[in-house]
């Protein structure tokens, strides 16, 4: 390993991504319209790469949010 390199173990990355996804979804229905729009755009950007394989609970969560 080079002094300038830092390699993060894959399980740790998965844990961090799970926390980020959970935080994004928990704030998706924020009453501030600009904030909720920005969060929606971030969720969409992540979903392009992670849904459905790595983020299978995204669609059920969104459908529940719409129904509530």
Question: What does this protein structure show overall?
Answer:
The chain is mainly α and 68 residues long. The protein has one domain (10-67). It has helices spanning 10-26, 33-50, 58-67. The longest helix is centred in the middle third of the chain and has 18 residues, at 33-50. It is globular. The relative contact order is 0.11.
- CA-atom Rg in angstroms: 15 Å
Strand percentage: under 5%
- Note the main sheet: none
Work out the count of structural domains.
1
Count of strand segments = 0
* Poorly predicted runs of 5 or more residues: none
Considering DSSP H and I runs of 4 or more, what fraction of the residues is helical? 55-70%
Structural class: mainly alpha
Please tell me what the overall shape is: globular
Cα-to-Cα separation, first versus last residue: 50 Å
* Overall mean confidence score, pLDDT: 90
Task: State the main characteristics.
single chain, mainly alpha, 3 helices
């Amino acid at each position: 390993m080079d002094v300038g390199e830092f390699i993060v173990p894959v399980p740790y990355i998965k844990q961090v991504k799970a926390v980020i996804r959970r935080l994004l979804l928990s704030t998706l229905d924020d009453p501030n319209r600009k904030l909720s729009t920005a969060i929606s755009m971030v969720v969409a950007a992540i979903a392009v790469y992670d849904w459905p394989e790595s983020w299978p609970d995204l669609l059920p969560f969104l459908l529940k949010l719409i129904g509530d």
